[in-house]
Structure formats: structure tokens, C-alpha cells
Amino acid sequence: MHKQKQQVMVEVRKLFTDFLENKGQRKTGERFMILEKLYERNDHIDAEALYNLINKQQHNVSRATVYNTLELLVESGLVMRHQFGQHYAEYEKAYGYRQHDHIICTECKKVVEFCDPRIQQIKTKMGELLEFNITRHELHLYGLCADCEKSKKESVAENVKEKVTAV
Amino acid sequence: MHKQKQQVMVEVRKLFTDFLENKGQRKTGERFMILEKLYERNDHIDAEALYNLINKQQHNVSRATVYNTLELLVESGLVMRHQFGQHYAEYEKAYGYRQHDHIICTECKKVVEFCDPRIQQIKTKMGELLEFNITRHELHLYGLCADCEKSKKESVAENVKEKVTAV
DNA sequence: CTCCATGCAAATTATTTGCATAGAC
DNA sequence: GTCTATGCAAATAATTTGCATGGAG
């Protein structure tokens, strides 16, 4: 299991190297450091947290470089950017990591991942129909999780009680 | 057709009125003005453009009010916020306007709307499975439109030619 | 040795906030 | 008359940019 992760890292470094060469971009240590940090984890992280993670631990990479590199990584397809809200973008490894989508609780902001094959059918169909060469997608379902749904019901009941008491 | 639009406007004003009353919020002219501007159009618009639209035309509504009202409208469900990228959020009427999703060209930023019933199946299924009460969704497909796909191919051909010439 | 990528801090953009006042209720 | 929503400008947050320098090619 651990070995598999090592293997992925090797492949990914190779892919990023090729990508940078093709673009005539330099292969700097900072860039590979950021790539690695993203591939070490199995969840999303935002730019600022990534910056802190790198700098508090050991190295010294500027915010500008973090943003610049994230852009490159997204362009290379090795990293996904998820824009959950206006001030809430997160990044996550994409290679060797099953394609998945997200359900977001609008109340507690909890994010749960899921996967449904029907999305692939939509992509294929719509790409054909509208003549787009579709490379990726983002699907977000919004609603209330079981907990927040329960709290809401209780709070409504509470309100009703208050009104009754008030009258 | 035009009459239908008038009819929608009446219904929507009524719904927004009820919403504001329920929240104990005031029914100000600015709020209804913004609601109307959004319902007059059949496409998306961003906060700044909406602000300009209102102020250049006739009235005088501050940015703060525009943002505040957009928030309320989204909360009421009468307006949808689409977050296409990190600096690219747009708003659009939601009531009496068929639910639809978007294909975005990553090159020229063109947005095409589409509708696929399979998305409803995913929502129902995943809501059940993960115990979420799903109220809405956002599906974005990203790729190259036919035009940009063509340009890309030509540009690649061009590059090859250059390299050959250079050697 | 050349020139791009980096670090840093200042700049920018979109959005939010604080405060005084107008106006909805 | 009361108190909230507004306008305005200043504040904030996330991201980008300009410039001098280090280091990849």
C-alpha cells in the first residue's frame, strides 16, 4: 500500500517533468516540493494552508510560487482545483485518484465525496451534441446533511413553541 | 410571450415579498429593482456589471446593497449563483427558468447551457445513499469548443513547422 | 553566462464592514 | 418615532504583479 504511493509519486514526478519540458519551463525544487505535498495527502487543501504547511515544516517557498505552481499543476492535469464557493477553493491530487464529485452541506460546510458513472454518460453525450472536447467536469450537490436537517427541524419546532408562548 | 414575462415578474415579486416578510426583512425599492434587473435578462451577469447596469441607467444603488441583495435572492432561491472560476461568479434568475447546467470552454470562456435528465437521477440516488436533503446542484463540464480545438491543432502544426524551419 | 523563476512586498480585485443617515414599518 | 437597510468609503481577503536576485539550463 505504501509502496503503491511511492510508485505513484515516481510516475507523477515524471509526468510533471515532461509537462514542464514541453512548456519550456524550468524544473525547480519548489515546484516538485509542492507537487509532493499535494500527493502526500488524500484530501483537499487550500493555497494558504499549503503555503503554511510547507513553510512551517522546513522549507521556504513564497506565496507567489505556491500560486504559480498550483496554476501549472492544474494546467498539467495532475491537480484538480475545486471551487466550492466564492472564497473557498481547494486543490487536490488528480492522478491515480479516482474521479469523484462532492456533496456539500450548506449549513455545516461538510464535504462528502461520491462517484456515479452516469456523469460519464452525460459528458460523452453532451460533448458530442455540443461539439466540445470535454476534458474534465465538476459536479457539486448542495443540501443539508442528516445532522443539520435534524437541527433545523428542532429549531423550527422551537420557534413554533416560542410563538405560542408569546401569544 | 411578453405577457408571460410580465406574469413571471408578478409571481416573483410576490415570492420575494413573502420571503422578506418571513425573514422580518424590509421590502425596499432597491431590492425589488435588483430582482427585476435580473429577471429582465435571460443570461448570467456578475455583481459589478449589475451595479453598473443599474447606476448608469437611472437609479443609484450602492455596491454594498447589490451584494447584500444578491445574497438574499440566492437564499430565497429566486436567483442562482454560478461560480465558474475563482474570479468569475455570475448570477441569474432561477424561477420559471428551466434548470440547466453549463459547458465552459477553457480557452475562450464561452459558456453553453445544456440539460440532461440523468443529473436528477444522480441527485436522488446520492441524496438517499449519503443521507443528504439535496436542494440544488451545479454541474460544469470543461473542455475546448470546436473553434478553439481547431485553433489549437493549427497552432501545434505551426509550432512543428517553426521547429523544422529553425533546424 | 544567460535568462527565467523566485522571494518579497506592494498592488489589485472582489467583496465586506463601520458608521451616519434615510426611509420602511 | 423606531430601528433596519442604505450609501459611502475604508477595510479585508485572496490572489497577482513588479523588481532585484538566485539558480536552472
Termini separation of chain A comes to 64 Å
Strand element count of chain A: 5
Number of domains of chain A: 2
Supply the number of helical segments of chain A: 6
Provide the CATH architecture of the largest domain in chain A: Orthogonal Bundle
Q: Overall 3D geometry of chain A? A: globular
Biggest interface, chains and residue tallies: A-B, 38 and 38 residues
One letter per element, helices H and strands E, the order of chain A comes to HHHHEEEEHEH
| Main β sheet profile of chain A | 3 strands, mixed
Query: What is the structural class of chain A?
Result: alpha+beta
Q: Residue-averaged pLDDT of chain A, rounded?
A: 86
Strand fraction of chain A equals: 15-25%
- CATH topology term of the largest domain in chain A: Arc Repressor Mutant, subunit A
CATH superfamily assignment of the largest domain in chain A? Answer: Winged helix-like DNA-binding domain superfamily/Winged helix DNA-binding domain
User: Rg of chain A to the nearest angstrom?
Assistant: 21 Å
Taking pLDDT < 50 over at least 5 consecutive residues as the criterion, the unreliable ranges of chain A are: 162-167
Q: Taking strands numbered 1, 2, ... along the chain, how are they ordered across the largest sheet of chain A?
A: 4-3-5
Helix content of chain A: 55-70%
CATH class call of the largest domain in chain A: Mainly Alpha
Assembly type: homodimer
